[in-house]
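I am still getting used to backbone structure tokens and would like to learn alongside you. Label the sequence line and the structure token line clearly, so we can match residues to local backbone shapes. Would you write everything just below, so we can both look at the same thing?
***
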Amino acid sequence: MTDLKTLLLCSSAMLVSGVAAEAADLPTMKAAPIEYVRVCNAYGAGFFYIPGSDTCLRISGRARYDFLYQTSKVRTGTGGDLTGYLGLMRINLDARTQTDYGTLRAFVRLDLADRSGPFLTSGSRQREGLAFPGLGADAFNRTQTYVNADKAFIQFAGLTAGRASSFFDFYAHDFELIGGTAGSDTFSTNLLAYTATFGNGVTMTASMEDPTYRRFPIFGTGSAVGAFTGAGGFAGYSNAFNPFTPSTFLAPVVVGPGNVAFVDVTQKSRMPDFIGVARIDQAWGSAQLSAAVHEINAGDAGSTVAGVTTATSALGISPTGRASNAYGWAVQGGLKVNLPFIAKGDTLYLQSAYAQGALTYAGISNYTAPYDALAAAPVGGGSFAQYYADAVLNPATGRLELSTTFSAVASLLHYWSPAWRSAFFGSYAEIDYNTKGRNALGLLGFGFAPAGASAANALAFATSPVLRGNNQVVTGASLIWTPVKDLDIGVEGEYIRTALNSGVTPDISKNSLRYVNAQDAAQFRFRVQRDF
């Protein structure tokens, strides 16, 4: 029995040994090593290497809640809301790779928001195609979802290409919650730019930018019904000084005795805006000088009355009735001064801009209607509308008469303690129109005549707010608490006064013959914001 056990054990040992020897001859299958995410210290905190590459990536974002209170003079229709609400999310992706030519960077930012109420449901954002409204009876023009590819640009060897903030901008409401002061703040546009660095903080930039986001309408006068009758004007012509309607995309131009062309005054894209910037950044702060050229290019005649004659060439317009191109321009100077001797983080901004035919660069419309609105009031049911136009099509000459704008802004940030800070800010801006275009509209019968059989017409023309020079003052202050890093809880209030540069206009908010020169508005905003 013992011999049998010994024989079996020996056989088993030999079998196992043989199998092990045979297995040793087979190829082995080893698990691939795990590549862990590594911290990238080359570009500051928060970056890590994308596994399998030499590119560093930082993911960040924002969550925001806003509550708004806005004064109103009307309680009917889609107006009359006094409060508004906003919830916003933001995602940032910042990818950087070191190359033989320096850092290759791609930055992407996406903003998504849902908002309701006055001045949170933005007509400007809808005109830009960045927002869409709810369509219910209690929602239309009062609720809005906002989507914006806010940033999507590439930077490489001095080149910036993609969607980014305009290089013309400087202060751009850095210290404000509402962002209502006058001044250029085109935070999303499409551009191609090159920045040269000269050392000691000095840079110079040349930028070619999308003109679409810098446009305000060319003022037209509506559509005509009936025939031109000479000095008496149009029979049945719609009033040039009525509120803006889509029909103003056609504007009449006299092209000969009894002959009129109707010009398409929507602006066409032929040339980009060209921007030049000189800037210095040092320990004391920053300074910047910006300049821009903006082409105003109208369309051809959409229709004619009594034909279009060769007399157009003598009037400076094409045989089809198209107005000659005009070129708007703007200059801006800005200064940022760090004030650590008052408190750590204290900063003062000063900025001023002047523009002709390019009013967004001066930013007078920023509070009331930041983009592409011919007329708007700064408060619901306002006493009168501010009119904004880069140019006016003169019906007597067929030429574009450019508007002139000016703005100045100051903003101070002060830290009461590391956790409490306030901003104090104010701006003044005004717009003036070349009177040739406005007077021609009246004298040729394209609207109210300043003189004639009816004294009422003369008064109406003289007091109409349309194409009247106006100005706006914005002042405000904020108080913000930061209990922990990257969390802000704060409130801001603004007072806005909008006035005609001279004279009076009927108060359309009152059912009376009351005349006014100015109107007031106020807005308050409470915000909770977390950045990460």
Notes: Helices lie at 2-24, 123-127, 435-443, 455-463. Confidence is low (pLDDT under 50) at residues 19-24, 222-248, 304-320, 449-455. Residues 2-24 form the longest helix (23 residues). The chain has four helices and 28 strands.
